[in-house]
Amino acid sequence: MKKSLVLLFCILLLAVAPQGVYGASAHPPTYTYKDQTTKLKLSQEPLDWTFRGARISGNHVAWNKMKTFNKGVSYFDQIYYGNLSTGEVIQITDSESYKSNPVIAETAKGTYVIWADNLNYMGGGGGSANDIFSYHVETRTLTKLNKTTGIYFDPPEAHGQHVVWSDRNAEVPKVRHADLNTGAENVIAEGHKPVIGNGIVIYQSIGNAKNDYKNGFYYYWLSSKEEKKLDGWFKESLYAFNGRFAMGAVSGGGVRIFDAKKPDSSGKTVLAESKSQIRLALGDSYGYIAEKAGDDKVRLTVVDLLYQETFPMDINAAFDRLIGFSGDKLAYLDSENRVVLRTIEAPLDRSIRTADPIHVIMDGKE
Q1: Span 182-201, mean pLDDT?
Q2: Whole-model pTM over 0.90
């Protein structure tokens, strides 16, 4: 009798469990999607090799493209901004200088486009020096963020009011940080290739003669100035971070994800091996691993970050036309260069995307 009551209780518990509760399942969950074509068209002309890639945040997209002339192509990129809601396109730069890929920062003071640019050092003996520029979309104001001259080889990264980039103007590279709201700028660590989200920076420390033990990847919390070594190693700058989850390519050809809420964790493999060229992107609770297939096609694997599971997804887009995520909406370019937003629809029991799932444990198994 007692065993029957326990069994009945367990059955009732599973029946009334809130959305987000999960356990072992004989059948994999089914995810669907809906595509919405936005008003934003990146180019009236076909996009070819002169298109250098795009980044997205909210309703905002920034990209760089080599400018074409009647006599051919200028090998200097120009920076553009576009709005998904209005379709407005702004050409921000028109200069003969080398520029990095731009990023978007949404702050309480407005939207910024940020990139590295050697505009002030072209032909002037500045060597490999760059500046970090921000462009305020609402006021159309250009500002130089860096206070000192540096070799800012890696593209900057931004989230909210915070911008980070690498300075290779010394024997040991340094990670610099700027606050868009206050204008403050400072060095936060020795290392390079930083990414940022929710006030947390991940960077690679390459060590030096005095500090060899620091070779590896680190979390750095801007508010507390604490840091902790990440128990993993990414390769070839193939990693992304959304402020909680980091996903990166690791030795052996696989892809692993790490959780900043569990900084001591060694992560979880979400792709065992890939021999193709890959790109990674993270949204709020989803990510993707794009593998380049033949004829510039893409093999897309979507990662459910909350449940740490993957599933394949068809997409009618070339490898170079994937943009990333706006929130949890996957963004890509269609054949007419319009931005398409794909809403991923999770199964009912996984439809709450703002909280961690609740684990039900029965007989010692999840």
Answers
A1: 94
A2: no
